[in-house]
Amino acid sequence: MTSLVTKVKAKLDQVNDYEAEGNMKTDVSFIKAPIGKVKVYFKKPNKFRLKKEGGISLLPKGGVSVNMSTIITTSDFVALAAGEADVEGFKTKIVKLLPTNEASEIVITTLYIDEPNLLVRKAITTTKENGTYEMQMSYGAYANFGLPQKVIFSFNTKDYKLPKGITLEFDDNEKPLSEAQKLKNKKGRVEITYANYVVNKGIADSFFK
Amino acid sequence: MQQIVQVKGLTKLFKNLTAVKDLSFSVNEGDVYGFLGQNGAGKSTSIRMMLTLIEPTSGQIELFGMDLARNRREILRNVGAVIEKPDVYKYLSAYENLELFARLSGIKPSKKLLMDQLEMVGLAARANDRVKTFSQGMKQRLGIGIALVHNPQLILLDEPTNGLDPQGIADIRNLILHLSRDLKKTIVVSSHLLSEIEQVATRVLIIDKGQKLIEGNATELFDPAQTIVELQTMDNVFALEQLKASPWSENLQAQRSSAILIKLNRTEIPALHTALAAMQIQLLSLQPRHSLEDFFLQITSGNQHVDTYTN
Amino acid sequence: MWTLIQIELYKIFRRPRTYIAFIAVAALITIIQFGLKLDGKSYTDFLMKDIGGTMEIDGNILNGYLICYIMLQLLLVHVPLLVALIAADMISGEANMGTLRLLISKPFSRTELLLAKFFASTVYTLLLLVWLAILALFLSLWIFGTGDMFLMKSSYVVLLSENDVFWRYVGAFVFAALAMVTVAALGFFLSIFAENSIGPIVATMSVIVFFTILSTLNIPIFNALKPYLFTTHMISWKEFFDIQVNDANEAIVGSIQNPQKIVNSALVLVLHIIGFVGGSIWIFNKKDVLS
After folding, report:
1. What's the DSSP call for residue B129?
2. CB contact under 8 A, C252 and A34
3. Domain ranges in chain A?
4. Does the pLDDT value for residue A71 go beyond 70?
5. Which of B8, B65, C158, C236 is deepest in the core (most CB within 10 A)?
6. Does C15 reach chain B within 8 Å, measured CB to CB?
7. Minimal-distance CA residue of chain B relative to C5
8. Could you tell me where the beta strands, DSSP code E, fall in chain A?
9. How far apart are CA A103 and CA A101, in angstroms?
């Protein structure tokens, strides 16, 4: 399994930096947000920035680095085979990555690797501070670089409630939620669809400060 | 002669009070109509009904031959009023107040008209001063200016001399006479003080407890045969002694500011003249004079005699 | 009638008291802007506490649009007093000054007089709102910049795109103007019954405070009353800042979550205005002017 992961990593390592435009959709039960145009910047090994031009972006906490390069490390981990699964019609091998460094923020990562294409179709990562999140990738024109066309990022959400005294809302039209609805409200998704990648053109470090 | 004001059966009932009861009177063109009564007699209420400030309980008011209720707008264009203590906008100047009320009265006043009006009431020099800085007398004069600016034919003055000093009272009196005699205005002036009305009214209505006591020409309110004569002598003490000892003692009335008053029939004046000479009273002047005040006091107090008699 | 309106406007704007409201609004707004400029981060951190557990929010949250919203929430509770200062003085002030009896004896009807006065007090109210808009919105945009608008409601948050905000403010201010005109109408109505201004001004504020409490409390016995209280509807300007989402939970740009609520609230307020002004005219026409 380690060799498979290494091959995937090598493919991703072709990219030193990239700049991409995308549309970001936030699907969280207690957030009403329109689709927003974003720009994403990445520089090896783990500099990442997502910017909504002149606007406000809402991203899952701790999971800002929606990027495979930062998730897959080639050292200090143990790779374990965990079977196979079908992801969006693609046969994938399930690999569990366990960091050997106990100080690592990541507890475990489960990768669903499309072996023939050396692409990660899905990744489920459990972190110490920020819980578990899931990333699902679909690829298009930039599959050769391992850069996804669409990333769906799923995560757990906490309940949101502000006292009506602060918001000055007097209506009490809320209906009590069903159990199914309450469960649904516990999960959120951010979906980014990338339009144009500009790869390896050079981005200054200062840009990410 | 046109009847400018005709009031018939005017009544006003407040909750616990009949303020005016079945009041009827008329005012002819050119009259200075004295509307007399004690405080609370119903004078102000009646005037306010003529200005539509208060709605009558019953009765009819006609001004300029038109029913007030139905022709209010047309009538009020031709009416000016000073209602008790005139109040204006203290944060505006005299000129601004006058202009504002002139426009409200339906005219578009020129600067000249407004300054002439202020000149007439003696406020031209203070035209641009805020009314806040005015004395009561000046505010009163401004109130009168406001009442007259649109050249109304009928002027209603409700207690116009309240709070004024003697000079202010004299000014108002002279103004009323000027408006009546020179400008031919019809004026209704109310007061509880006969001394103010005495010198200006041509006709008088006396009201008490909301009801008319009497209405008529000022002179007709008296027994035309009776008059009060005022004597001025070289030695009033000696004259008084002589008169007391004479058949004229019963005619002696109140003594007032160095004048001896004698009430008698007019036809007796020559005989008095002769008697004074016989008593060797050195006469300086003999003036027949009667006062509305005595009459008013008599009627409203129900007293037929004048009790004061000063030796 | 036009002459009457001109004169009433002239009287309002020649009176020093009128400018208290404009100065007060300017002072309140600039103090809030000053405070937020100095320490806005603490304020937004406090607001974001709850959502910060799940989401990271990046961007200029504390921009002019959000600040204007915060100020409207605060000020539209206090602006009614400033409106009442003038509106509740319209008749009682004249009676107190002694000028009412002169006005009534002029050749126009009491109805015309009242309508002119109400119209003038409406103009004052609208100008006050325009002033509020200039300071709360335009000045805030100038100081804090523009951006998306991030709003926190009691059970959800709304993110409005920058280009989807300004028209909402136009709607909100128009609605707020309607709400303040309702306050003016109430003050105007109460002004009929008094011969000095303090009474109607205090009474107007007392009614608003009392009804606001009834509107706020979630007690079943009061819930039946809420739809009929104008204070419940005065805050419907906020509905301009709620957006619909489609089945995929995407906010639909240019939409309003509950437009019918805005329309209904506007109707209720208009009915109140008609009721108060109509009542004023009816009562005043029958009133004996003894002042």
Report:
1. S
2. yes
3. 2-202
4. no
5. C236
6. yes
7. B104
8. 17-28, 31-32, 36-43, 47-52, 57-60, 77-87, 90-99, 106-114, 119-127, 131-139, 148-156, 187-199
9. 5
Q: Does domain A2-202 have CATH number 2.50.20?
A: yes
Closest CB from C7, C101, C104 relative to B103: C7
Q: How far away is chain C from the Cα of A209, in angstroms, using its nearest Cα?
A: 14
Question: How far apart (Å, rounded) are the C-alpha atoms in residues A27 and B69?
Answer: 72
Q: Would the CB atoms of C57 and A35 count as touching at under 8 Å?
A: no
Pick among B101, B104, B188 to test the C interface (most C CBs inside 10 A): B104
CB pairs under 8 A between A and C: 134
Give the mutation candidate from C154, C208, C268 for the A interface (greatest A CB count, under 10 A). Answer: C154
Q: Do B72 and C109 touch (CB under 8 A)?
A: yes
Which distant-in-sequence residues (6+ apart) come within 8 Å of A95 by Cβ? Answer: A1, A4, A5, A79, A80, A81, A82, A110, A111, A113
Domain residue ranges of chain C, discontinuous segments joined by +: 2-286
Helix (H) or strand (E) holding C270: helix C259-286
**Residues from chain C contacting residue B103 (CB–CB below 8 Å):** 3, 7
Edge-first strand listing for the sheet containing B58-63: B18-28, B3-13, B58-63, B66-67
Map A112-158 to HEC letters.
EEECCCCEEEEEEEEECCCEEEEEEEEECCCHHHCCEEEEEEEEECC
Q: How many residues does chain C have?
A: 291
Spatial distance between the Cα atoms of C195 and C175, rounded to a whole number of angstroms:
32
Q: Which of residues 61 through 100 in chain C touch B, CB cutoff 8 A?
A: 97-99
Q: A142-172 pLDDT, tens per residue?
A: 888 888 899 888 887 777 777 666 666 655 5
In chain B, what is the greatest distance between 2 CA atoms, to the nearest angstrom?
A: 70
Task: Choose, out of C6, C90, C97, C101, the residue to mutate when testing the contact with B (most B CBs < 10 Å).
Answer: C101
* pTM exceeds 0.95 for this model: no
Distance CA C255, CA C164 (A): 9
pLDDT at A136 over 60: yes
Query: In this predicted complex, what is the ipTM?
Result: 0.86
Q: Which of B238, B266, B236, B237 is nearest to B251 (CA)?
A: B266
pLDDT at B311: 32
